[in-house]
Every structure is written in C-alpha cells, then in structure tokens.
Amino acid sequence: MISTGRVRYGVLAMLFVATLINYADRATLSLAAPVLSADLGIDKLALGVVFSAFGWAYVAVQVPGGWLLDRFGAPRVYLAAIVLWSAFTAMQGAVVWASGSTAITLLFALRFLVGLAEGPSFPGNARIVAAWFPARERGTASAIFNSAQYFATVLFAPIMGWIIHGFGWPWVFVFMGAVGMGVAVIWARVVCDPADHPRLTDAERALIAEGAPPADPATLAPVPMGRALRVLLTDRTLVGLYLAQFFITTLTYFFLTWFPVYLVEERHLSIVDAGLFSVVPAVCGFVGGVLGGVWSDWLLRRGASATVARKVPMASGMLIALSILGCNYVTSDAMVLLCMSAAFFGKGVGALGWAVMADVAPRRAGGLSGGIFNMFGNSAAIITPIVIGYVLKVTGSFDLVLALVAGCALASVVCVVAVMGRITRIELTD
C-alpha cells in the first residue's frame, strides 16, 4: 500500500497540545481555589461568580471569533489567541497582592480576558480538522483534540497541585502562562493551511480533499451574516446539537471548576491528593473520548449512516455518565472514584459534537457555525459555576449538585435522540 503522507497527523498533534494547554489554563483557578479563596477572603457564591467570568467572555466572543476565523484563517487567529490567553493566565498570579472585593474584581476581569482570548480555539479546531482530514477520519481526529481536555488534568493536575503546595498558588498561573508561550512558538512553525504546507504530498492532498471543505476561506464567495444566521439558528439538527452540547458541557465545567473543591471540602482530601485523585477520572475521560471517535468512524466504515454513526456513541456515552449520581450513595473514596471515573468515561464517549459540526457545517460559514455551536455549549460555563455556588451556599452539600449534573447528562440524551434530525452537510445558497 502506497503511503499518502502523514503531515495531517502533525497538525492534529499540534491541535491536541494547544487544546491541552487551553484546558489546563481553565483549570488553574479551580485547583488553586481552596487555598486562594481562604487567602483572599472569597466566599462560595463569589467564587462561583469568578468561575463564571470565563464563560461570559467565551460565549460572547464565539460569533465574532468564528467570523475572524473565516476572514483571516484559523492558523493565524489561533496563534494570536494562544499568546493572549497565556499572558492573561500568567497575570492572575499578581492578584495575590489584593484581597476582598478588589481581588474578586481583578480575578473576574482576568478570567474574563482569558475567556475572550480562548474563544476562537474550538471553532478553530473544527475548521482545521475539516480542512486537513477527509470525512472518514474526522470523527477520530475530532475525538483526539477534544480528549485533550481530560489529558490536561492527567498531565497538569499533579504538577499544579505540587506547585501550589510547594511554592504557593500564584506560581501555578505564572507556570501555565510560560508553558502557553512556548506552545505558541511551536504552533507558528507547524500549523498552516494545506495549500501553504511545503511538505504536503499530492497523494495526501488528494486524500484530504475527500469530502473536506476548502481550507482557504477566500476560495469561497462570502455569505451575508444575516442569511447564514437564519439557517444556522433554525436547522433542526443544529438546534438539537446546540442543546445537547450545552448539557454535555455542564459536566465539563463541573469538573473544571467545582470538582477539586468537592474533593477537598466534601471528601476531605488535601490539595495534593485532590490533584492526584483527579487523574483517574481524567484518564477515563480521555480513553472514552478517543474510543467514542474510533467507534463512530468504525460504524461509518461498516456502512452506517452518519446519523447512526454519530448519534449511537453520543447517546450511549451520556447514559453511562449518569453514574455520577452514585457518588451521593457511597461513602468510600474508592467508590467515589469509580463513579466519577465511569461518568467521565461516558462523557468522553458521548462528546462527539465537534465531529458532527465537521460533518454538517456549511462550507461557506464553517467558522461562524462552529462559533454558534460553541457559544451555546459554553453557556454552561456561565450557568454551571453560579448555580453550583448558589446551591452550595444554601444547602452546604454537593448532593443536589451531583443530581443536577446527572440530570443534564440525561437531558443531552433526549436532545440527541429526539431533537436532532439527520446528520448531513448543510449548504448555504445564494
């Protein structure tokens, strides 16, 4: 068999690394939160509001960020995003010199800026995957970059816990900011559009062209935003996908924000132990994420329609994620670990939303459609931390919190099965 080349895998590896840093930067505050909140005098509800700052900005920038991707190209916009979010992450360490309302305001502002900078990242991932991979490989490629959110915890949670314990919480922000800047340097040397890559062979270029939209937005006639939005906000499959992604992302933001607090305050683990404890569910989420994409692409190769190949793993995975509710009925740390691990394995299997977007996004509005999808999904980044903070302030317990998270997993299944229609490419006509 003649090799077609493997340049696209190098690009995918870079997407994985960038997403790894993206999610590690989101998690810095949650790991530092138990110590940081005590040092700065921040209560639970205020901490929930600070957690939500990222989400407010991230959601707000999705549509303009998608337009930027379409207008200037994903590689360049993504590079600028990495540089900016890394700088704003490092700056959070300076909040150590503030306290009370001043500390809350500064943390909120800096988390807000991180959210603004990270906004184009996932629509950029989807656009780059659509540009670099044929349809039959997109499920696996999307699952691999999406699974980086779990591997971020596997790799960085123990390191961040050690930094916080040994050097103090401000240094975890400085460390992650420096790592991000290093990734930006590598990105600039590795990632570009297929048409501009000097090592791309004709054989690999032909393979990529199988069902892939053109990489260069300039090759397509622009569509007025109003016309595109009317289609993107009314198509049944897209609406169902948006809603499902919101409920799936609720589980993500429980893990990224309140999970370490749950381990420290409800399960009485130390900061270091909480970082280590987080690794096993994250590994399970990573494995589930990769398996979900592989399973989906295997179904496609076996002759299943895109609708079946994407919906079956999504619904099955989120049913497994209901196991998070079991944490309310067990007492040992080992059983909590088992329930959480099963939940995040299932969530990983079911997190195929970006693969579906790569399948259905209009060629003439790939960035915009990805931005809208990510805007709906990451509304959970606003709502989840605040609702959990309020529930904890009123009840003082995580029991209702875990029940709400499980309810969101079930709601995502309903959206995938009953709301989403056929999965097929949407075209925007003149």
TrEMBL record:
**Is Lipid biosynthesis given among the entry's keywords?**
no
- A Pfam family found in this protein is MFS_1
Q: Which PROSITE patterns match?
A: MFS (PS50850)
Q: Tell me the membrane topology, using the record's own terms.
A: Multi-pass membrane protein
Q: Give me the segments passing through the membrane.
A: 45-65, 77-97, 103-122, 143-165, 171-192, 237-256, 276-300, 312-331, 337-360, 372-392, 398-420
Name the Gene3D superfamilies for this protein. Answer: MFS general substrate transporter like domains (1.20.1250.20)
Signal peptide positions are none
The record's subcellular location field reads: Cell membrane
Ordered alphabetically, the record's keywords are:
Cell membrane, Membrane, Transmembrane, Transmembrane helix
What is the protein's major site of localization? membrane
**Domain Major facilitator superfamily (MFS) profile, which positions?**
11-424
The record's section on InterPro entries has: MFS, MFS_dom, MFS_Na/Anion_cotransporter, MFS_trans_sf, Sugar_P_transporter
PANTHER family reported for this sequence? FI19708P1-RELATED, SOLUTE CARRIER FAMILY 17
Entry protein name: MFS transporter
User: What broad taxonomic lineage does this protein's source fall under?
Assistant: Bacteria, Pseudomonadati, Pseudomonadota, Alphaproteobacteria, Sphingomonadales
